[in-house]
Amino acid sequence: MKNTKPQVREMVLENGMSFPTDEELIMLILGHGTQQMPIEKLAHKVICTIDDSNDDDRMQKLLSVEGIGKTKALIVSAAIELGRRKYSHLKSVIKIPSDIVPYVQHYAMEQKEHFICATINGAHELIATRVISIGTVNKTIIHPREIFAEAVAERASGIICCHNHPYGSCVPSEADCESTKVLQKAADILGISFLDHIIITRDGYYSFLEHDLLDDTNKS
Q: Which pTM was predicted?
């Protein structure tokens, strides 16, 4: 059983995940081939199969590859699905702030508060969504510098802040309202549009913008 070449692992550790080829990424995912199917050859066959398949038939086609059993087929399919979930939204056009909700709704299932910042470019495209902090079941501590650091680095024109309420309604607390005011002031100083603060729960969401709770100076 031939394992992934050590130089592939070392190359990735030294240069990052964007450095290897598609086949080398598959080698890392699979870990090893079989006596009859070396890892390099197996990775090549898997890439060809992925390129020639769709979501509905990928598992079936992977299982037809010699050296790929149910476990490896599931691992490859799971890696593809995770990548799709995490990055397919990038460059999506956010016409109105609440368009961000589908991309952060899964945080409503978390048992602790997660504070998320979405950065938007001048073309109203989503640059990135990132978790800024994780708190307790009903509180998360945030600081403007943590929220705006990446926005400034990415030259974002606007941000949308979101956080989940693990239990109870999505109606903002007094602390939510106060933190929103602080973030709006910081955004104004930095010249970044504070587009909205959205609270999400399993049953829906609450938009500060839609409820006219944002200062006019930041509604842009």
A: 0.67
74 part of a folded domain = yes
Number of neighbouring beta carbons within 10 Å of residue 131: 15
Contacts of 196 (CB under 8 A, 6+ apart): 97, 98, 100, 160, 161, 207, 208, 209, 214
* 129/90 Cα distance (integer angstroms): 9
- What does the alpha-carbon distance between residue 139 and residue 174 come to, in Å, rounded to a whole number? 12
Tens-place pLDDT, residues 95-145: 999 999 998 998 898 889 999 999 999 999 999 999 999 887 566 678 899
| Domain end position, chosen among 87, 116, 141 | 87
Give the C-alpha distances (Å, rounded to integers) separating 29 from 25, 38, 42, 92, 152.
Answer: 6, 14, 12, 28, 34
Q: For residue 123, count other CB atoms closer than 10 A to its CB.
A: 9
Residue recorded with tokens 């955004």:
187
> Which residues span the domain enclosing 54?
6-87
Helix (H, G, I), strand (E, B) or coil at 133: strand
Number of structural domains, the chain? 2
Q: Which of 170, 44, 51 is CA-nearest to residue 113?
A: 170
